[in-house]
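ingest -> validate -> predict -> emit
validate: passed (alphabet ok, no gaps, 296 aa)
predict: started
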Amino acid sequence: MSMKKTIQNILSQEDLNFLLTNRIPRIALTRFIGWFSQIENPIVAYLSIQVWKFFSALDLSEAKSQHFKSMHACFTRELKPNARSINQDFNNLVSPCDALIGAFGRVRNGEIFQAKGFPYPIEDLIPNKSLAKSYEGCEYVTLRLTSSMYHRFHAPTAMQIRKITYISGDTWNVNPIALKRVERLFCKNERAVIECEIDHPDKGAKNTTLTLVPVAAILVASIRMHCVNLLFHLRYKGPNEIDCDVAITRGEELGWFQHGSTIIFFAPKNYRLLPSLKLGDHILMGEALFEYPLEQ
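emit:
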């Protein structure tokens, strides 16, 4: 067995993984990596990316550039033109990012799940109580971005961004190992709530709000949002609620994570997750994620 495989097997042991990625000075380490990753030195960048490749499935074949001035530039890399195909069916909402399908289901009694057996109140995740309550009976999905994935996220459909709420918080790891051990984990971490209004296929629909909740994690506590030209991070001291009125086209880039994390996607009423999608499936940005049934 290769050394790489041996080390990966050791790190995959749940107790050790949880210890190494959570029982450490999370915020201090995240700030250090945030500084280190932006060092613009070709040798530092090259060696850092090689170490990253050793510990992950990093594949840069789709990257627009193969040369990076820093590790941060590699984290936030753009893709080659047409590397992703955007589903154009008006009845579909597409995945905003490359991700693994995590928990999904329907909001019931004000609760959703981060993992099997770990429910949490949606109002703990979304501070706007009226917005949170509006999703009762609606479907949601958790999209997990691993460290090696494309880290930019995009619009699931044509929409108006109405409001962004930033919530400062911790930087727990958001991998499945931590999600099975830390209750209300997403509600503890730094995150942003992006409220959007869509052009619903049903013109008489009352709930036309789509909400994305990007959640930061250890090594990644920075979320860039283009529409407000801001970088939300652990030292951000600006307003927590930012009203917007920004028109976004389907597939348009919304922003990026500095490393990898999670987006929790709340769909408007009567949309349903595609029945073909299962827990753990790998989905690409632009692929159909939710569908609006033609017959109710």
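Residues 6-22 have pLDDT under 50 and may be disordered.
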